[in-house]
Amino acid sequence: AQKVTQAQTEISVVEKEDVTLDCVYETRDTTYYLFWYKQPPSGELVFLIRRNSFDEQNEISGRYSWNFQKSTSSFNFTITASQVVDSAVYFCALSDATTSGTYKYIFGTGTRLKVLA
Amino acid sequence: NAGVTQTPKFRVLKTGQSMTLLCAQDMNHEYMYWYRQDPGMGLRLIHYSVGEGTTAKGEVPDGYNVSRLKKQNFLLGLESAAPSQTSVYFCASSYIQTQETQYFGPGTRLLVL
Asked: Between B35, B42, B50, which is nearest A102 by CB?
């Protein structure tokens, strides 16, 4: 069965520290997609990145970087030089095809990141 | 282009009352979804629709009904609200061609007393 595990419930760091949020997934499919979303205190879900299962290249976007490793079924997210504005709940999600051919999201339980000034 | 919008933003109900949450999207998306978010549980799929006039059950469908009479709208109904339905509800939509990527609305906070 599909599953997404975010073992870190809450992380606190001091501003300017680097922090890595872990995401481990399970799926039987060979074609699937992985996502990270940010949920700030205002409550909306902000899309951060999408990765398909055939692209294992790591990606960097400003202070954000993602490490996708199929061998360990992990899709970890690192924030470099964290800032107070990074404080939010971060969700990892898996999207893969169901038996009917539609795609469904499976979300992890989220990691609450607190960046202290 | 407003994307995905949800109405209302916040609502308080008494046990047993009914209500309908409205989701609207202006991106001509075929697929639409309703999720609920509870503390410590992430988002869980309630119902979804792969096109106008079609709906299907998700992970936690009990106590909810949905309708997709128009392509741009997806309604979530609670016929008899229960305190266990206190949650934040998110709607999402996606293109049929890239259905693996969903676009989320701002959420509706529902409190059932």
From this structure: B50
Residue A81 token pair: 């030089």
Which neighbouring-strand residues pair with A86? none
> How far is it, in rounded angstroms, from Cα A54 to Cα A34?
11
CA distance A78 to A84: 15
Candidates B40, B90, B109; nearest CB to A109:
B40
Tell me the nearest-neighbour CA distance from A44 into chain B, angstroms. Answer: 5
Candidates B87, B102, B103, partner chain A, best to mutate (most A CBs within 10 A): B102
Q: Dig out the tokens for B65 from the structure.
A: 């009904």
B21, two tokens: 């949450």
* Tens digits of residue pLDDT in B5-64: 999 999 999 999 999 999 999 999 999 999 999 987 889 999 999 999 999 999 899 999
List the beta bridge partners of residue A37. Answer: A47, A91
